[in-house]
């Protein structure tokens, strides 16, 4: 079994001091170009790899950021990671990404691992289980260890850290208001995000829009999961008259449109459909889906910017929440005004 090459090994191989080798690999102006070339050539030949943790002990930084997301299959989170990666790279940082799969226990394990490898900050979107139980001790532990913590999308106001969120309330309000303007009178709300902060805000926005337009309108709400959406929505349609439907994510909108067709309903002639998240599915499905655009990549970049600001200034401050506005993108799954 081969052993890992160290700075000391390169120094002994070249009969140089460890300090000279270290400075040469770091392109220090104190070292001649000829010596740098010799050292770097030897490092490649000996398959030397820098130890990020060792560098971090000297600089108090590892130039890595930990990210925890609840669901990699959700297009929204994938786009958030794209924004994070770009912003982190532009600032000389790398990402260590963990997927909690909506599990509180997995979320705890991810935070423990990230703190053990000494990331400079942790950015997290909470699991539905964490939000449902309101268990936050593991999050406060991160703050106790003086690791900057930033929440995005799904946040908890009881944790004293900065956050960046979407204006979910207004996004749903605008979606319902648009359907009302097109003449819809029986608008339903389908949520696969029950007991999450974003799901609750979207539900409140939908309810407020109906009440503000006509307080005699009765909200029609269905809580379900993607795995049972077809059956649950099918039964819901049989028992409720609807001419408009707002879903809390892109996949739910697609699944719902398929279910409506199975039940003999045409989109948008019989039922107009609006989803959240503006991904490739929504743009390329037939009919193309009207969506509430969540500015996912902007959110990812903003979360990184906040984390870096906190790394560079660890003084205590009141938690700040950045709110990113949504945009209603009109396509063919809704009737025109």
Outline:
It is built from 14 helices and 12 strands.
What does this protein structure show overall?
- The protein is of the alpha/beta class.
- 47% of the residues lie in helices and 16% in strands.
- It has 14 helices and 12 strands.
- Strands 2-1-3-4-5-11 form a 6-stranded parallel β-sheet, with helices on both faces. The chain has a 6-stranded mixed β-sheet with strand order 7-6-8-9-10-12, sandwiched between helices.
- The longest helix is centred in the middle third of the chain and has 17 residues.
- It is elongated, with a radius of gyration of 25 Å.
Biggest sheet architecture: 6 strands, parallel
H/E topology pattern:
HHHHEHEHEHHEEHEHEHEHEHEHEE
Mean pLDDT: 93
Query: How much beta, percentage-wise?
Result: 15-25%
Rg (CA only): 25 Å
- Global outline: elongated
Strand order of the largest sheet: 2-1-3-4-5-11
Total beta strands: 12
Give the fraction of residues assigned to helices: 40-55%
Low-confidence stretches: none
Class of secondary structure makeup: alpha/beta
Q: Count of helices?
A: 14
Indicate the multimeric state.
Answer: single chain
> Could you give the distance between the termini?
71 Å
What labels describe this entry?
337 residues, 6-stranded parallel beta sheet, alpha/beta, 16% strand
Describe the SSE topology.
Layout: H1 7-14, H2 18-25, H3 33-45, H4 52-59, E1 64-69, H5 75-90, E2 94-99, H6 104-116, E3 121-124, H7 128-133, H8 137-144, E4 149-152, E5 162-166, H9 168-181, E6 187-191, H10 197-213, E7 220-223, H11 229-239, E8 244-247, H12 250-262, E9 272-276, H13 280-284, E10 290-293, H14 296-312, E11 321-324, E12 327-329
Parallel strand pairs: 1-2, 1-3, 3-4, 4-5, 5-11, 6-7, 6-8, 8-9, 9-10
Antiparallel strand pairs: 10-12
Helix pairs in contact: 1-2, 2-3, 5-14, 9-10, 11-12
